Amino acid sequence: MNYCNSRSTCTSNSTLPYLILSFCLKRACTYQPCQQHQFTCQNGRCINKAYFCDGDNDCGDESDELEHLCVTPEATCDPHYFTCDNGNCIEMAKVCDRIDDCHDNSDEKGCGINECNDPSISNCDHICTDIQTSFYCSCRPGYRLMSNKRSCDDIDECSETPSICSQMCENTVGSYICKCAPGYIREPDGRSCRQNSNISPYLIFSNRYYLRNLTTDGRLYSLILQGLRNVVALDFDRVEKRLYWIDVDRKVIERMFFNGTNKETIISDGVPNGEGIAVDWVGRYASCYFSVQLVSSSGQIYWTDWAQQAYIGRVGMDGKNKTVIISAKLEWPNGLTIDYTNDKLYWADAHLNYIEYIIIMWCAVRHSNAESALFFC
């Protein structure tokens, strides 16, 4: 059982937020297994293997930089010398000179033979390179060399590097193709997508007590709603033109049409410390697979809560079917947003310093998207 090296659960009734007092107990945590391309930290976090032994404390507990793990093997011989099978080092000029300079004949075996000309010897899938006493195999771009040092296997760039395309990624043999959602066109770089319309964007924001609308050029600034208590999270349903928000003082989730009509409460209790909200307006007609049962969905609202046990919750737009979907490995979840194109729900944890996402249709599997230091989002 791992333990969270994070926020403690205190028995004190102190009103000071996030104050760690003397009588605190650490909560036990169970973490999801790390994926094949990730390194498992001692604290249970998963980081990309590319960050292992790179000089930075990516795990947060320095377990990815332990001295006994980050040992660079000393070169047996100088780069300009030949390494004999018995460990001796000789000058490269003495290789294949018909003299046993290594004293095990390893500097003379294979000389004058191009193994690459005989596929029965080299048996390289893609590229064979002849060297003085031997040969080596390599692969074309988009493939990796397998453990037998001869075979090449396709790299699934879409799975191993999720950010390689800005929207949709399709893996092909030896490569990949970036695609854009309807209404977007692909940029010349082949990876980015931009909107193919003349719609003028605008910004809707809250300042605790009111909701306002601002054009991105700053010219038009208008009031949408006032008289609120403490709004900390806000999102917009494009289909029904509704605004959704969390009022953390009243511990409720509310909504209203963008024109200011029909203000109503969706959840009247059970949101003690709401922090972020995201409305899945695309998925209102989607389905979610649960234990061999197909459950229809009429659109969902997701929110994060910094309660004593932090969680990410979900509820229907009609206020029904409220449930907790993520509760493990969470401390200060915020920055909640939905990637509608790829059907992903993203969040950041400002305490554990990571960004993760789930694929909404799968409803459970978590993926680490970035392992970099974060502050409040």
From TrEMBL:
It is a single-pass membrane protein. SUPFAM superfamilies: EGF/Laminin (SSF57196), LDL receptor-like module (SSF57424), YWTD domain (SSF63825). CDD domains: EGF_CA, LDLa. It comes from the Eukaryota. It is found in: Membrane. LDL-receptor class B repeats lie at residues 241-283, 299-342. It holds the Pfam family Ldl_recept_b. GO terms for molecular function: calcium ion binding; hormone binding. Disulfide bonds join C34-C46, C41-C59, C77-C89, C84-C102, C96-C111. Coiled coil: none annotated. GO terms for cellular component: apical plasma membrane; receptor complex. Keywords: Disulfide bond, EGF-like domain, Endocytosis, Glycoprotein, Membrane, Receptor, Repeat, Signal, Transmembrane, Transmembrane helix. Residues 137-152, 178-193 form the EGF-like domain. GO terms for biological process: receptor-mediated endocytosis. The keyword Repeat applies. InterPro entries: 6-blade_b-propeller_TolB-like (IPR011042), cEGF (IPR026823), EGF (IPR000742), EGF-like_Ca-bd_dom (IPR001881), EGF-type_Asp/Asn_hydroxyl_site (IPR000152), EGF_Ca-bd_CS (IPR018097), LDL_receptor-like_sf (IPR036055), LDLR-related (IPR051221). Belongs to the LDLR family. This is LDL receptor related protein 2.
